[in-house]
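Intended use. Records like the one below are meant for learning the mapping from a protein sequence to its folded structure. Do not use them to infer anything beyond what is encoded.
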Amino acid sequence: MNYNTEEVQRIAEAVAQLVREGMRQAEGEEQATQTLADFETSFREVLQQVGAQALGMFLSGLQRTPESEIACKCGGRLLIKECVER
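Structure written out for the chain above:
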């Protein structure tokens, strides 16, 4: 999928700012040295929350509920990325 590069940049800057603010708060509360692993963990947490909210917004805007399974080429049913053969 191709996404608008400028929109991705804008969202990335907003996420980076959220993490920056969160790390400043943590730094003030803990007075501990922060590592690269701390930054990565913070980004993962923020992105997981953003993704969950965005998915919820997207799904609530759909006209119908997405299928939980579809027909597979082998004749079975495809359930969440894995084929269950007959």
